[in-house]
Amino acid sequence: MNNHDQLKITTMDYSKDRRSAENPVKIMDLTFRDGQQSLFATRGRTEDMIPVAEMMDEVGFWAMETWGGATFDTMHRFLNEDPWERIRTLKKYIKKTPFSMLLRGQNLVGYRNYADDVARAFVDRAAANGIDIFRVFDALNDFRNFETVVSVIKKCKKHFQGSVCYSMTEQRMGGDIYNLEYYTDKAKELENMGADSICIKDMAGMLAPYDAYALVKALKEAVSVPVHLHSHFTSGMASMSHLKAIEAGVDIIGTCMSPYAYRTSHPAIEPLVITLLGTNRDTGFDIKLLTEINEILEKDILPKYKHLLNDRRISITSANVLLHQTPGGMISNLVNQLQEMDALDKIDQIYAELPRVRKDLGQVPLVTPTSQIIGTQTVNNVLFDDENERYKMITGQVKDLCYGLYGKTPAPINPDLRKKALKGYSRGEEPITCRPAEVLEPELDKAREDVKGLAVDLDDELIYALYPVTGKRFLKWKYGKEQPPEKVKPKTIEEAGAEQKLIEKARAGKLVEKIEKKAPSKGDNLRIFNVFVDDEYFEVGVEEQGGASLVNYVRQAPAQMSGPAPTLPPAAPALPPAPEPAAPSVSAPVKEPAPLEDSEAGVEGTLLETPMPGTIVSYEKQTGDAVTKGETVVILEAMKMENAIPAPVSGTIKTINYKSGDSVSTKDVLCVIG
Ligand code: CO
C-alpha cells in the first residue's frame, strides 16, 4: 500500500493551492443513471440532461455514469427514446469526461442471460456509440458470466471495471460466506481477468462504515488496480462508509448531484468536497459550480420528476436493510406485489420466509435479477404453500436458477428443492455446471429475421433482441409505423406545475370543481379508487408509472354510488389447482376459475383471468385450439418475470381478448375456454 493513501488532514493552505492534493479522491458521478434510476424510476429524459451537461463536464469527474442498468429498458418502453441515441447526444455536450455504463454481465441490460452473439454485438455497439468504462457485475458473482463481454471490452480497448456485489447474511460483514476472504478472493479473480479497476457494488446500502474500512484496506493489499466503492444511501450509512473508505485509501467513490442524492440513491458530492478540502485527498472540485448546476436541476428539471419520488415517508432512510439484510427496493417491490394481490397483511410472513427461500436457493446476493427471483418465489410460497407442501408454485426463473442457467450460487442449492424444480424442466432434469451461456443457442440471426424491414441497423436489431415485445413496439414508433401513445410523450415544466397543483388539491380533498384542462388520455394501467372526504365521495383514477402513483383524474362520483363505504378487498386469492405433473415449466399463481354466466358476447365458458398486472408476451394458443388443464395459454411478463398462465380447465379456446404487447390489469379476461 502506498503511503499517500493515508488521509492527511490540513496539510496545505487550500485557499491558495487546492490542486496540489497528493492523491485526490476520484469521483464517478451517478446522477444521470443510478441517481435518476434510484429516485425517479429511471424516467429521466435526455432533453433534461442537456441543460447541465456542459457544466457537468467542467467539474472534473473521473467518469460520469450515463447509461446501462435500467435505462435501456425504460427509455424504449416508457419514454419513446432510442437508448443508443442518448450516448451520442450526451457526447456532443460532454467531451472531456469519460462515460461509464453499468453492464449486468451476460444479462447485458436485461433480465436474463443472452447468447454470446448478442452479448458480443451489444458491447461492441456500446463502445462504438461512446461508452468508455464498463462497470460489469453478475448477480451471483459468478465471473464466468463476464468472459464474453470482457473479451469484447478488451478488444475495443475500453476500461473494464470488475464489480463484486456486496451481500451479507449477518448484520455485519462476516459469517460463512460473505466474509473478508470472499471479497478479496473475488477481487483477485477479477484482477486476473484483466480488470482495470475493482468496484465493490453495495447496491442495497448494507456496507457498514467500519466494514468499509476493513474491506478497502484488505482490497488495497490484495490487488494493485484502483478500488472503487459504489454504495447506496438507503440505510443511511453510505456517507460514513465513504469517509471510512477514503481513510482506508479507496481510489474512486460514486456520488450524485444533491437533488439526485440520498434516500435509495447515493450520498451527494457537495458535502464530500468540503469534507476533503485541505486534505491530501481533496477532490479539487469547485463548490460554486456544483451549486450552480443544482440550481438549474432544482428549478428547471426536477419539477417534472417530483411526482415519481416516493416521498410517502418523511424519513429518508430505511431500516429494512439493518433488520432484514434485504435491499430497500426489494421490500417496496414485495409490498407492491402483495398489494396487487390484496395480501398486504402477509408482509410479516414474507419477512420470515424470505431468508428461508434465499438459503434454499444458495444464499445468492440480492440484486437484479436475483432479488426479483427470490422475492417472487417468497410471495408464491406465502400465498400458495400449505403444511403438506412447500414450493407449490415454482416460478420459471427459480427453475432456471436450479438448472444453473444463472451460474453457480455462492452456497449449494437445497437438493430437494432442486429436484422438485427440475422435474419435467424443458432443458433437462440434470443441472449444468458449465458457463451458462454455453448452453444458449445463438439468437442474433433469428432476431434479425424477425425485424427485417423494420430495423434499419444493428442497434435497432439489438433493441429487439434484448426486448422482443417492447423493443418491436418501440421500433414501430421510431419509424412511424405506429403512433406512440400520449403517455410516452415528454411533459413541459408548465404541465408539471399544473399537475402538481392538481395532486396537492386532490390530496387535500379540495378538488371539487370540474377540471377545465383536457384530461390526458387514460392509460392501460389506470386503477380506480374511491376517496371519501366527510360526506363527499370522489372517484379517483390513478395511473401507476413505475411504482409511483400519478393522479390521472378526479371526479365526483355518481350519486347512486355513494353511500356505505365499499367492502374491504377480498383476502388472498384462493389456492389454485395443483399443477399437473406435465405442466409447463413456468407457473404463475392463478385464481379459481370463474364460470361466465351472463356474457354480453354470448360466449359461454370459463374465464382465464390475469393473476397480476403485466404485459402479454405471447398467446401460446389461438381461438379454436384445444387445451388441457394446466397447459400454458398465455405468457405474461409481470414484475419483470415471465409467467406462464395455465388453462384452469380443459376445453377449447373460444375467444382471445388481447395480443402480444398489450398491458393487462389484475382480473382482465385473457381468454374464454369453453
Ligand atoms: Co447502484
Topology:
Blueprint: E1 26-29, H1 31-39, H2 50-59, E2 63-68, H3 71-78, H4 83-93, E3 99-103, H5 116-129, E4 133-136, H6 147-155, E5 159-165, H7 180-192, E6 197-202, H8 209-222, E7 227-231, H9 238-247, E8 252-255, H10 269-276, H11 287-301, H12 320-324, H13 328-340, H14 347-360, H15 370-384, H16 396-403, H17 415-422, H18 444-450, H19 458-466, H20 468-478, H21 493-507, E9 526-533, E10 536-545, E11 548-556, E12 594-595, E13 606-609, E14 614-619, E15 626-627, E16 632-638, E17 641-646, E18 651-656, E19 663-664, E20 669-673
Parallel strand pairs: 1-2, 1-8, 2-3, 3-4, 4-5, 5-6, 6-7, 7-8
Antiparallel strand pairs: 9-10, 10-11, 12-13, 13-20, 14-16, 14-19, 15-18, 16-17, 18-20
Helix pairs in contact: 2-11, 5-6, 5-19, 7-8, 8-9, 13-15, 14-15, 16-17, 19-20
